[in-house]
Amino acid sequence: MLLLALSFALYLFSLWKRPLLYAGLIFQIAYLVSRGFELGRLPLVGPHDTLVFFTASTVVFSIPFRLILKKNIRFHNTVAIGASFFTAFALTSAQHNAPLPPVLKTLWFEAHVVLAFLSYALFAIAAVLGFVYLDEKNSTVEGMQYRAILIGYCLFTLSIIFGGIWAFLAWGTYWIWTPKELWTSILWIFYSFYLHARLKQWWMGTPLAYLGIAGFAVVLFTYLGVSLLMKSSHSF
Amino acid sequence: MIVFKYVIRFFLSLNTTLWFLGFLLIMLFAGALIMPGKQAFQGLHTVPLFKWLTTQPLTLTWWLWCLIGILSVLTVNTLFCSIESILKKRKVTQWLLLISPQVIHIGFLFMLLAHLFSALGSSQRFVAAREGSVLHISEDSAMQVKGINILVSPRGYISEWEVSVEYLSNGEVFKKDTIKPNQPSIHRGLNVNVKDFRLFPKKTVLLQVSKEPGAVWALTGGILCMAGITILIILKIKKER
After folding, report:
1. How many Å lie between the alpha carbon of A224 and the closest alpha carbon of chain B?
2. Could you tell me if B15 and B109 lie in one domain?
């Protein structure tokens, strides 16, 4: 937990000294690795571990965009504030230390969850880029938002496919009518809408930037809202 | 003729895609608000969707009917747009890159087809069984539970389990199988999974016997989507370089 608390502090202090964001990321990855060794599996069950994985993925994915945006303070600050917030959330969430039930010990589950959180991280970056675009109206930033969403969408689609295969093997059906599945569909359709809207000139620029930001609100509800507020087959 | 042209134009339009994706989102939002609070949706897994829909009041199911209507329009729209795109771009260079979104579209259509088949003919039932129990799973065959092995860790968690079964026809064993976590017993389109256990007073399992006619189609759609996505990402990265 000390490593995680340190990464929280470093993310926060990176608002003043930017390289500290990388130091925070190193501590967070070290924490994830130590959790993995402690549990003897990928630490991807429950809000605590998934929040840490999601935050670390978001910071990792922000690096190539930072290299292009170089001195963009707004991009850096939004990523740093977001990383601090989600790390603080992870610090206050209970750890899931129980052994995995046999049904979760499969590569399908690991691939499903890893891909889902990598896509969530890319959608988070896309939302940050949306804020940057609204500030600067720079078409390069809009193009970067599109790339983040396109790759995120592809990973999310793969996650859904792997989840369906796993559900069929584990529970005999590839689709279960629960709030999580419904919100996952909403999220997938939402970004399908974004990708199709980008083909129309009218949507280019500000409307797409807003869509990218709104999409992350749907991500947050699908990930945290459904798990915390509704009964679902998913515990995260 | 004018009507025919109008219909063709409607289904070839990207505006149709956007409007109907928007309607689809609204209906899914409505469903997300309606579904969690209503007990009736608990029974949705045990009968085919279309059968369930006809037994429930419209006040509860209107959004699902709307979803079916919207998805039907989107299916035709996707088919029209994909065919047009393939025909238009068949002679251009980087054909694979241009075709990959259409492969994803076709995968999506296969998944819709899968849901249609499942909505027409899926089923699910639960049976409690002990070692030696015989369950009739179809008119001419039965399944006998031969052994239930459950491994409990020192901390009291179930760490591993397996259920061995035999399929019988006219009293003769014609197939032996073992059900494990993520390894159901599949026989003539039926999928037998273990849903729950009880260790005391006797080892008992709750078996789930389900039929999912859309599963193969969903897998086909998934493979097509994965192929399309892989080609799209690889070629986009190459193009960027």
Report:
1. 15
2. yes
For residue B157, the enclosing domain spans 124-211
Distance between CA B127 and CA B108 in Å, rounded? 34
Q: Which residue of A has its CA nearest to B49?
A: A177
Residue A73 phi/psi, 5° resolution? -70, -40
Confidence of residue A232 (pLDDT cuts 50, 70, 90): low
Q: Look at residue A235 and tell me whether its pLDDT is greater than 70.
A: no
| Nearest Cβ partner for A230 among B28, B36, B184 | B36
B160: left (phi over 0), alpha (psi -120 to 50) or beta: beta
CA distance B95 to A196: 20
Indicate whether B60 pLDDT > 60. Answer: yes
Question: Which residues of A fall below an 8 Å CB-CB distance to B?
Answer: 98-99, 101-103, 105-106, 108, 150-151, 154, 157-158, 161, 164-166, 168-177, 179, 182-183, 185-186, 189-190, 192-193, 196-197, 199-200, 230-231
- Report CB contact under 8 Å: B104, A157: yes
Residue of chain B whose alpha carbon sits nearest to that of A196: B18
Q: What is the CATH number of the domain that holds B138?
A: 2.60.98.40
Q: Could you tell me if B116 lies within 8 Å of chain A, comparing CB atoms?
A: no
Q: What is the mean pLDDT of residues A173-201?
A: 93
Is the pLDDT assigned to residue B239 strictly greater than 80? no
pLDDT tier, B241 (very low <50, low <70, confident <90, very high otherwise): low
CB atoms within 10 A of CB A31: 23
Task: Tell me the two tokens of residue B152.
Answer: 């409990």
Are B115 and B223 within one domain?
yes
Q: Mark whether B63 and B131 lie in a shared domain.
A: no
pLDDT of residue A231 exceeding 70: no
